[in-house]
Specification:
By secondary structure, the chain is of the alpha+beta class. It has a single domain, classed as Lipocalin (Beta Barrel). Helix content is 15%, strand content 49%. It is built from one helix and eight strands. An eight-stranded antiparallel barrel has the order 1-2-3-4-5-6-7-8. Strand 1 and strand 2 form a beta hairpin. The longest helix has 21 residues. It starts with a helix and ends with a strand. The relative contact order is 0.15. About 11% of the residues have low confidence.
Length: 138
């Protein structure tokens, strides 16, 4: 009976640690250039990110003018959801997309924690991939 209890307790604790690891991405992150902060949050079991802060005051009122869809070109960049549909699998956040307002395009991406305060972002297009590291602000 004692062994069964310990086994159940261990499985429960292991499940909790996986959930905590998955949510470790949640927070506010400074992009590599230092020009903006992105807030990553969980919604319906997936992870998303929006532009939370922009360093240059003149850019804080910028709109999504390069969006290929004309109906979105007047929306504000500040608060814009740029990361969508990330799923936690095998210690990484995968199958997501990241939108670049500067280019008006979306690219597949994956995220991984290098440490509790460093987030590595990898974007891929065809056989090419590029990465950068973001720092945790909060």
């Amino acid at each position: 009976m004692k062994k069964q209890f310990l086994c159940i307790l261990f499985m429960f604790l292991a499940h909790l640690s996986v959930a905590q690891d998955a949510d470790a991405i949640i927070g506010i992150w400074e992009i590599e250039s230092g020009e903006s902060h992105v807030q990553i949050y969980k919604k319906e079991g997936q992870y998303f990110g929006k532009i939370h802060w922009i360093k240059n005051p003149k850019k804080r009122t910028a709109t999504d003018k390069n969006n290929p869809d004309p109906q979105f070109r007047n929306r504000s960049i500040l608060g814009l959801e740029i990361i969508t549909d990330l799923q936690y699998k095998g210690g990484e956040w995968v199958n997501g997309k990241i939108y670049s307002p500067e280019r008006g395009s979306e690219t597949p991406c994956k995220f991984s924690l290098e440490s509790s305060n460093q987030l590595k972002i990898t974007v891929s297009k065809g056989f090419m991939s590029k990465g950068q590291t973001w720092k945790r602000v909060k």
